[in-house]
Amino acid sequence: MINWRVDSLLILLTPLIAVPAVFLLSSSTVGVDAATISLIVTAFFATGHHLPGMIRAYGDRDLFQRFKLRFILAPPLVFLAYFPLYNYHFDLYRLIILVWATWHGFMQLYGFVRIYDAKVGSTAKATANWDWLVCLCGFATARLMRPEQVSNTLGHWYSAGGPLIPPTLLTTVRWGALAICVAVLIGFTVNYIVQWRRGPKPNPLKVVMLISGIGTWWIAMCFVDELILGIALFDICHDVQYLAIVWLYNCRSVNANPKLNRFMRYVFRRGMVLLYLGLITAYGTIGYIAPLVKDGTISSIVYSVLFTSTILHYYYDGFIWKVREKTNQANLGLAQGAVMPRSQWFSGIRSSHALKWAPAIVVLGLLFLSDLIDPPLTTAQKDKMDKSYAQTVVGKPIRLEKPEEISWLNEKFQSAQDIAATVPDDRRAQLRASILLANFGRNNEAANRLEELLKQHPDYFDAHTILAEIHLYQGNLEQASDRFQTALSLAKTGKERSAINLRLGEIDLHKKDFAAAKIRFQKAVEDDPRLSASVEALEKASSPSPSPYPTDG
Fold it and tell me: Residue 104: is its pLDDT beyond 80?
């Protein structure tokens, strides 16, 4: 596509560099936290790689004139849509990003595959369709095979008002997706052999590209323990490939099109690749700065800019890089008419773009109108209750006063139980359901569920900790102590060790073993000095008074 060395390094074999690099950084030897890797990749790769597409959209005069209305209206509309989506419908916001990001990822891979075939004249519609199906199945099925992904998606789905999905239906969909994948792979292989014999022969490099792209996605989704690390790994490959092809495209465009603005003509020329990368890095700092902003209003504006950049990137890339366009073919070094499009709906309707987007615009418009008439709970209110009741054991039945809060929490409880039943192989879903059971006063059910979970995952630190908390609030100090001891042996960070030692110290206080408690508190403060004030308060409060914990379940 570029030349074989650059092609191999930046496009075909990027995962061979990215995968070992990410695993090395996150290993115990180097010890970079997964959240830190994710933040850096999200900022400087994921956000930064939006810029080249924006430069082309607003720097190519012919392209801008052709899609002028879209380029003018889309940015303010997306920017304004962020605020009601984030403030009132965060789960819908997350669903939009999740679905569109997956679509965007597999369509980029599909585009690369079609370019490789177009280089050798393999442009049959059947081949394009099989290529598209392979990419779609490869990406969608991987998400279905990761239990955590399925649980997260179901959580967003239920919170956004979606109907219940029975466990049997989900199981059918997951295994059905695998069966369809096998069928599509067989069909792709048969078509490949047929086209190879009939000619023009397909490009063998496209098979390498498919294995590289889909393989990386499966590693990220199914073989990396921490999801944010897996997504970061895939983003590196996706973004490097995107930046390479856009650099090539725009350099050729500058040489062929005198109507490009001065900025594009200055940046996209020989010897300016460092400036290109510097601009991308500078743009990516928006993603790095956003989490650091403390002021709520400014933070909201910065995040709305990030959201707008992300959505516009997905949206614009859906039409400005179509390989079947003659201008794009020329700037990619393809022969005119080298690409035949796959079969599409609305292909003969001039207003097809508006027809595709009209339902989404109408639904969102009605949703935002209902928010003005009858404002629902805000995302901040929901987050506060979620942290209080769905992530932490409070030790007593929940008592809320506002009807809308009670309704939301009841829905959250029910959805957590439904998700746990639907995705039994997701340990986080089982843990969340157990926490809510305990907080609704059903401690014995919660303890039993956690016992079953620990039979399957005996090294699950969080499950041991929550089960210990339940025993503690039931007044079972010995059982609580045993579970905390097990959790302590599994703790990997100073923060985890300090939290467990603090709780063990509290138990020692209630057993009147003040010497043991003092040792525990010292260890807790050693790992986390910020706990010193809490330790002092506990030591002052220790007295012969009766235990505050109930003695029944």
Answer: yes
Using DSSP's 3-state secondary structure scheme, residue 154 falls into: helix
Spatial separation of the C-alpha atoms in residues 216 and 238, rounded to whole Å: 10
The residue among 471, 436, 421 whose CA lies nearest residue 451 is 471
**Tens digits of per-residue pLDDT, 42-93?**
887 889 999 999 999 998 888 999 999 999 999 999 999 999 999 999 999 9
Q: What is the DSSP letter of 201?
A: P
Give Cα 468 to chain centroid, integer Å: 31
Predicted TM-score (pTM) of the model is 0.86
Residue 282 has pLDDT above 50, yes or no: yes
Q: What is the mean pLDDT of residues 430-439?
A: 94
| Cβ contacts of 483 within 8 Å, gap of 6 or more | 464, 465, 467, 468, 471
Task: Judge contact between 15 and 212, C-beta under 8 A.
Answer: yes
Q: 346 in the Ramachandran plot: left (φ > 0), alpha (ψ -120 to 50) or beta?
A: left
Q: How many C-beta neighbours within 10 Å does residue 76 have?
A: 10
User: How many angstroms from the chain centroid is the CA of residue 161?
Assistant: 20
Residue 87: the pLDDT is 93
Exposed e or buried b per residue across 189-215, where buried means at least 16 C-beta atoms within 10 angstroms of its C-beta? eebbeebeeeeeebbebbbebbebbbe
Tokens of 461: 């630190």
Question: How far are the Cα atoms of 102, 362, 366, 371, 372 from residue 84, in angstroms, in the given order?
Answer: 23, 15, 12, 8, 10
What DSSP string describes 300-313? HHHHHHHHHHHHHH
Residue scoring higher pLDDT (412 or 337): 412
| Pairwise CA distance, residues 465 & 487, whole Å | 6
pLDDT tens track for 213-257? 999 999 999 998 888 999 999 999 999 999 988 888 888 888 887
| CB-based contact 394:439 (threshold 8 Å) | yes
Contact 128, 209 (CB under 8 A): no
Please spell the DSSP secondary structure of 327-362, one letter per residue: HHHHHTTPPTT--PPPP-TTTT-TTHHHHHHHHHHH
- Tokens 């790994």 belong to 233
User: How far is residue 207's CA from residue 213's CA, in Å, rounded to a whole number?
Assistant: 10
Cβ-based burial of 58 (10 A; exposed 0-12, middle 13-18, buried ≥19): middle
- Residue type for position 183: A
Which range is least confidently modeled, 182-196, 332-346, 397-411? 332-346
The dihedral formed by the CA atoms of 320, 53, 77 and 47, expressed in degrees to the nearest 10: 140
